[in-house]
Write a structure and sequence with these properties.
CATH class of the largest domain: Alpha Beta
CATH topology of the largest domain: D-Maltodextrin-Binding Protein, domain 2
Strand content: 25-35%
Distance between the termini: 27 Å
Shape: globular
Strand order of the largest sheet: 2-3-1-4-11-5
Order of helices and strands: EHEEHEHEEEHEHEHEEHEHEEHE
Number of domains: 3
Largest sheet: 6 strands, mixed
Radius of gyration: 25 Å
CATH architecture of the largest domain: 3-Layer(aba) Sandwich
């Protein structure tokens, strides 16, 4: 049975459960404090802190894990990404007080104190730039450090930057971009059963990730307009074209389209005299 380390709480945990549920692997537990759960016949979930997952995977306690790439990099453990899961977007940024003379990372002078809960990433970043700064490791919210005079600059994780602004801070540069990843040990060797289970897991999750933000569009269009239709809905490998019984000069076209442009797509098709336009959600998409 393949053991999967999953985040036990927070937004990352919620979105992970949603993804696994959409992939046909609902995470069902008897209690919110459960430490493990069965995910069908092939998988067992282990619920741990997101920051501990790289360690669990690297040490072989879990075969695969879901966690943020920022936590993988900070751990410096030998794990690799198997699949970008498409959620949990955030950035590790440097920030200074609004009234600071520091306006970008180049402006951080030697000897400056940098407070962060990501000391390994931060140290490596500044060493690579030959900037001699003093790393001040902290736990919890780093935003308070400049206000207390503990540091001139902080390095912290952010999604929107709103927390920094509320606390009188402004971004001066990005050290790392992060997103939730499915990770395995770099030198991991699985037996046939686990290898097949891992391939099935990756395929199931990937099919859901690919389908997000997509819609399946169907419409009846004049045959003479097919060249123009192909420009509007190129689909994955071109739209599917189907003859309509008693359809005269009309054919049915089907294609997967980006949800962000669906309103423009419908308008463009209507301008070609398309009728019977139908748009549905896509649950899974395999290349």
């Amino acid at each position: 049975m393949l053991k999967i380390a999953l985040p036990n709480k927070g937004r990352l945990a919620d979105e992970t459960r949603e993804l696994f549920g959409d992939a046909g692997l609902p995470v069902l537990t008897k209690s919110d404090r459960a430490l493990s759960a069965s995910l069908g016949d092939e998988f067992e979930a282990l619920f741990v802190r997101a920051q501990d997952i790289p360690e669990f995977v690297a040490d072989g306690v879990a075969d695969v894990g879901v966690t943020g790439w920022d936590l993988v990099c900070e751990s410096e453990r030998p794990v690799e990404r198997r699949l970008d899961l498409g959620f949990g977007d955030c950035r590790l940024v440097a920030a200074a007080r609004d009234d600071s003379v520091i306006t970008d990372i180049d402006g951080i002078v030697g000897g400056s104190r940098v407070a962060t809960s990501y000391p390994k990433i931060t140290r490596s970043f500044f060493e690579a730039r030959s900037q001699n700064v003093e790393i001040v490791p902290i736990s919890g919210a780093a935003e308070i450090a400049p206000l207390l005079g503990i540091a001139e600059v902080i390095v912290d994780i952010t999604s929107t930057g709103s927390t920094l602004k509320v606390n009188g801070l402004r971004e001066i540069g990005t050290l790392l971009t992060s997103r939730a990843q499915l990770v395995t040990r770099c030198d991991g060797v699985f037996d046939r059963e686990k290898s097949d289970a891992l391939d099935s897991l990756v395929m199931a999750l990937d099919s859901v990730v690919r389908a997000r933000g997509k819609r399946y569009l169907m419409a009846n269009v004049p045959r003479r307009s097919l060249d123009a239709v192909k420009q509007i809905i190129p689909g994955i490998n071109g739209p599917t074209v189907i003859d309509i019984l008693n359809g005269g000069d009309r054919v049915a076209v089907h294609a997967v389209v980006d949800v962000r442009a669906i309103y423009k797509t419908i308008g463009a098709l209507k301008s070609l005299d398309a009728t019977g336009i139908l748009v549905t959600r896509v649950e899974r998409l395999l290349p």
